[in-house]
Amino acid sequence: MLIACHRSSNKDDDNILARAYDDYLYESDLEGVIPEGTHARDSLILVKNFINNWIKEKLLAHKAENNLTKEQKDFSQQLEEYRNSLIIYEYERKLIQQELDTLVLFKEIEQYYDNYKHNFILKEDIFLIDYLILDKESPLIEKFRLLLNSGKPEDKDTLQHLCPVHTIDFNLAHDYWLTLPVLIRTFPFHSFNQDDFKSSMDHFQFENNGRIYLFTVKEYIIKDNIAPLGFVKKNIKEIIINKRKAELL
Which structural domains are found in the chain, ordered by start? Predict the structure, then answer.
């Protein structure tokens, strides 16, 4: 094994940086190893590491070559299987890309849910909530609180109109179901727990970091019950699309 830097007669106008038995590492092989703008000292470290790793790999390959039987070194079958798997994967990917219909109508989701709802059993309690997040200094906090707590359809419409302009964030969707762990990760409840949510029916608020959080817990369902459609509709859509994939293939 040799580490050197000189001209090679086998590769025109290219310097040999290292040699391991009959394998040569040329200067041109370093193309792309050093990112543009790298400091000279760091460049030298990257080159040295690349050369050392190249030498180690070649030495290990040479050792393996000399210590394995002819049968052990015959990877033709594995390579053929791997090649076939790549071809099949690419064919299936292109087929799905070109032929798969990813549009799932709500009535399809609803029908699937009606047929298989007993497969969707809750593993955790879930909560159906509306929420508004406002700046602590907002003059509309009390107005928003009254509108959120009223439960009247016309007040919900008013909120839908006002919230995009006057809140930091909000949700008024009719099917915004969340588990408690997701709620805790999403909002800065700190000491709030599951019992607090259940006992806070219907409304509560808190302040954190200059913001006012207004919540309405409209409903909750405890675990081991059938999940509502709104909680599982995304999963059902994926199931329907995956079934279409299977039928294509």
Answer: 2-67 (no CATH), 75-111+234-249 (no CATH), 122-221 (3.10.50)
